[in-house]
Amino acid sequence: MSDAKAESVARKKADTASSHTLLEGRLGYHVESALLVRALTHRSYAYENGGLPTNERLEFLGDSVLGLVVTDTLYRTHPDLPEGQLAKLRAAVVNSRALAEVGRGLDLGSFIRLGRGEEGTGGRDKASILADTLEAVIGAVYLDQGLDAASELVHRLFDPLIEKSSNLGAGLDWKTSLQELTATEGLGVPEYLVTETGPDHEKTFTAAARVGGVSYGTGTGRSKKEAEQQAAESAWRAIRAAADERAKAAEAARTAEPVHDTDGADTADTTDEAPASA
Known about the structure:
CATH class of the largest domain: Mainly Alpha
Number of helices: 11
Number of domains: 2
Strand content: 5-15%
Protein name: Ribonuclease 3
Pfam family, one: Ribonucleas_3_3
Family: Belongs to the ribonuclease III family.
Number of strands: 3
CATH topology of the largest domain: Ribonuclease iii, N-terminal Endonuclease Domain, Chain A
Largest sheet: 3 strands, antiparallel
EC number: 3.1.26.3
Subcellular location: Cytoplasm
Low-confidence stretches: 6-11, 270-278
Order of helices and strands: HHHHHHHHHHEEEH
Structural class: mainly alpha
Strand order of the largest sheet: 1-2-3
Helix content: 55-70%
Radius of gyration: 27 Å
Shape: globular
């Protein structure tokens, strides 16, 4: 190896180590270097570099750890809720959009090893990639530090979302909430048109929520259910906003109406009428 190439390799390793130190500081845990590298390796990078190990197995593991910790927390903090409500609370916390927002809070996208193709299409901010990588990092912390450490990390990152989920109201099940709203507004029953793209092992679903033949919102997700929920949320917000605007306009029109005095005269018009000509 030439001196220049050796220097380049050494500099790259130093940059990687520095980057990992920064991420570990945000996580609050040191993770064995090779394990963290794998957790941050998207398959697009692996394929472009000779078939390196990807983060997909760690993602699978981290998804289970995250689900366990969140489910355990909800079970203990809501002893009176039935299974169906607990499932809705969990879905409000464990979904690609929520995970992506947590990942953005860590600036996780800047640490991911991406292939040139994904890099060029904005992969560092894609919700699915951020969510998958965060799960892989949780899996890496679990393997390196154990369940207690992984659980503490999940609580630190997700407890605000868990607390917020208890007060979501309509957000616990957007599809049900949308159906209730459209019934109230006399718009009919919502329907969902779903398309899917991508390979079998990583499909992306896109849903459009339509009511009376009109599309009110779209959503994407790693499952059909998640895409439909996001589309329903978008549609619910659009229809709710329109209904609120109509209500405000009606109230403004009502308060602008002339006020009549007790004799039936219109007090808003004080001009005397001209006498009729003979």
